[in-house]
Specification:
The structure is a homodimer. Chain A has about 140 residues and is of the alpha/beta class. Chain A folds into two domains: about 60 residues, 2,3-Dihydroxybiphenyl 1,2-Dioxygenase, domain 1, CATH 3.10.180; about 70 residues, Roll (2,3-Dihydroxybiphenyl 1,2-Dioxygenase, domain 1). Chain A contains four helices and eight strands; from the N terminus they run βαβββαβαβββα. In chain A, the strands form two sheets. In chain A, strands 1-4-3-2 form a four-stranded mixed β-sheet. In chain A, strand 6 and strand 7 form a beta hairpin. Chains A and B meet through strand 1, strand 3, strand 4, helix 2 and strand 5 of A and strand 1, strand 3, strand 4, helix 2 and strand 5 of B.
Chain lengths: ~140, ~140
């Protein structure tokens, strides 16, 4: 098995609310949309984020855990400066993010904050100046 | 906010078990490893998968939901033929995947199955012949 994530799929309770947040709020452009069922976005060069109605999700994957609270998963959106962390968190708040944890200087040298989407999924907004943080940006010389 | 996932972080209960599965079992090569804390892998051109000890996760993100059962998230590993779906599921089983749902022909035209990692996180192994499925592979002409 190669080291590859192709899709990240989140089971959501209300696709209309998801659409309001990601499309109307954050101005993301859907790649595919089936009303009441699924909403997909490109989220990287070879990566798709899929928001899937929980009913459909359960019929395929199985009955979901009764989850209230924070789930043991975050999606990170990395940016190139600490200032952009604050800017994206402000944008998420304006888009209606239910919870926002302001940017904090981390002991490992970065600066990161969090916001929650309409289902409570946590997005980390991160400036990571370390070597692993650089992996997620295109090489500077590559302007193609 | 641009449409970009840079990191996928999973909160895990036992990094030794995670290592046994992903490194010893699936032969993934760590990009960064801090014993007892975190294990990171490249998972795409600009994407990192991070397995983070739940204790550390909770101290930064907040107290986790009491989750027993299936979480409303899956990570998909797409492959280029239906046969490869079966092959990867067999590999996951050999690596110690706790649960495996064999490949099924889906009504949308694809062929997919699932396996669970040591924490129960669901990976979908998918052959998706549709347009969105093609987004997650490099263009055939691009051999760089």
């Amino acid at each position: 098995m190669e080291q590859r994530i192709s899709f990240v799929t989140l089971g959501v309770r209300d696709l209309v609310a998801s659409r309001r947040f990601y499309v109307d709020g954050l101005r993301w452009v859907p790649e595919l949309e089936v009303e009441g069922e699924v909403l997909m976005f490109r989220a990287g060069p070879l990566l798709v984020l899929s928001l899937w109605d929980r009913g459909h999700f359960e019929r395929e994957v199985g009955t979901l855990a009764d989850t209230t609270g924070i789930l043991p998963i975050t999606l990170a959106h990395n940016v190139s400066t600490p200032e952009l962390v604050d800017a994206v968190l402000a944008e998420a708040r304006a888009a209606g993010a239910s919870e926002v944890a302001e940017g904090v200087q981390r002991e490992w040298g970065g600066y990161t904050g969090y916001f929650a989407d309409p289902d409570g999924f946590r997005w980390e907004v991160a400036w990571n100046p370390g070597p692993v943080g650089q992996l997620v940006f295109p090489p500077v010389a590559d302007t193609t």
